[in-house]
Design goal:
Blueprint lengths: L2 H12 L9 H8 L8 E9 L11 E12 L2 E4 L7 E8 L6 E9 L4 E5 L3 H4 L16 E8 L2 E15 L8 E7 L10 E4 L2 E10 L2 E6 H12 L12 E4 L3 H6 L9 E5 L15 E5 L2 E2 L5 E4 L3 E4 L13 E8 L2 E8 L21 E4 L2 E5 L2 H4 L6 H4 L2 H4 L14 E6 L14 E6 L2 E2 L3 H7 L8 E6 L7 E5 L3 H12 L5 E2 L1
Antiparallel strand pairs: 1-2, 1-4, 2-3, 3-6, 4-5, 5-6, 7-8, 7-10, 8-9, 9-12, 10-11, 11-12, 13-14, 14-15, 15-16, 15-19, 17-18, 19-20, 21-22, 21-28, 22-23, 23-24, 24-25, 24-26, 26-27
Length: about 500
Amino acid sequence: MHRRFFLRLLAHVAGLALFAGAAPSARAQLLHRPGWESSLVSIEVTYKVYDAFQPWNEPTRAIRKHGVVIGPGEILTTAQYLPAHTLVRVQKGGRGRWHDARVKWWDAQSNIAILESASPAFWQGLTPAPLADKIGRGPEFDLVRWRDGNLETRRVEFGKFTVGEGALGFAPHVQLEVSTDLTGLGWTEVVARDGAVAGLTTYSNGRVCGVLPAPFIRDVLKAWREGRFTGLGYFDFTWQPGGNPELLKELGLAGEPRGAVVHRAGRESDPAKAPRPRDILLEIDGKPIDSEGDYLDPDYGHLMLENLANRGHFAGATVKIKVRRGAEELAFDYVVPKAEFADETVPREIFNGAPKYLMAGGLVFQPFAQPFLRGWGEEWRKFAPFRLQYWQFEEPADGRKSLVVLSGVLPDAINLGYQDAIMLVVDKVNGRAIATLADLVEALKTPSAGGVHRFEFMPGRDLQRLVLDAATLDEATKRVADYYGLPAAQRL
């Protein structure tokens, strides 16, 4: 047997691990997959768009992305744009009929989704593509996609393996970067090598394109199929590189610089179970940590220590952490916490249904989350108000776990003079601390002395408080809702 054909056959056989339960005919199709034309599909997603400044509006948009058949009746794609979808359709061959599809499973933190379609006609002629077990460090990959009804294959160059947050989540995991002169990428194009899927694109920034690596996808899907996927985890403590010898000496570590210095502890209060400030991280899960905060990964080379939260396990797993604490070296079992948006004071994403809001006397309140900040456009980090972005990095002194923002004012006689009182983080209403819209509803049930509702805001602008007449608030709220055409005064 020709050596090259034999190696290609081995790559195809490696992909069978995910499809052990498939019918014999499906496995035969996998071994004899004729080409990418029979595995790549186009996906159209219609989804609701969050309107940061008019949350009662729910316009829809449609985008097209790519997917790849990986098993009988299963299409692999990224989770981007799927959380708020209203309709998903799939197309084979790059042209022709669209078929209705359904989201079988998706996960935001890993940015992985599986689609299925009940249309028998769609599956005719489609064969699964294998996911690569391992990815070498270069030099090139093939990027394969449907473009204008034709299959396009272009070479992209290996860049590096890195560790970063996903396109939807904040749990760090391994990622691949490739270099290319192609534009308009990041729509789940397949990056391939030797006939196997090496990864899926997730973003493009100039000549650099981010890719979700196939081995990571395999691990997540395998755990999901076996019912043991607990979600991605993360290290909830923060740290800094230990490259300063004088700092390490002060903390009790002599010799060559090594390890990373813990800056802030996580939620675990027991110092025997988690790193503390001024601890030096020496080892995590048996992997020595160098002075850059990296470890040597046997598959990917030097990677940031954050990847060890999800390497070979997921949230809830116990990893051994060795630290230098003063004159002692300590080792303890650290339970990796699950990456949950609800644990963030300003959540990166909110996926639990339609956007929530409350309008009272023309004042519009919303839960404070990063999607609201993204209402300032792609360069929101540059243009969104600094006094709002501040709360992404600083927790309230009183420990409240979420915030509410006054996002707008619909002018009415009751709020005359307050039209510019917007983009303020609510502190208290009628003396009650406000962390959620439910808190605000309760606070408005009991007016302050003098028959007014008193609103107080976090420091940041000259306006620190405003008052509305309590006796006429309900009447004004109804009047404003009717005049401005709101479907309801609140959505909680």
